[in-house]
Amino acid sequence: MVRSDADRQESDDAAAKGGKPNPDRKTNPDADVGNALRAVYREAIDEDVPDDLMNLLKKLG
């Protein structure tokens, strides 16, 4: 199960207040790595292609 940052924050907040974290949300280091990789990938694909690279591609095409 993949946990979002909000889910982790909710669990941390509950634990800090003396409550129990939601048992449905399990800590999984692999999921954390997966979330981090997905976030970096999303940022990369959302970036604009630089104008000089676009000009170079037009020249090659």
The largest pleated sheet is described as: none
| Order of secondary-structure elements | HHH
- Give me the Rg, rounded: 20 Å
| Mean pLDDT metric | 79
Helix residue percentage? 55-70%
Question: What are the defining features of this structure?
Answer:
61 residues; mainly alpha; rod-shaped; NepR; Anti-sigma factor NepR domain-containing protein
What's the layout of helices and strands?
Blueprint: H1 5-16, H2 29-46, H3 51-60
Write a concise synopsis of the structure shown:
This is Anti-sigma factor NepR domain-containing protein. Residues 31-60 form the Anti-sigma factor NepR domain. The protein is mainly alpha-helical and 61 residues long.
What does this structure look like?
This protein is mainly α. The protein has one domain (5-60). It is 66% helix and 0% strand. The protein is built from 3 helices and no strands. It has helices at 5-16, 29-46, 51-60. The protein is rod-shaped. The mean pLDDT is 79.
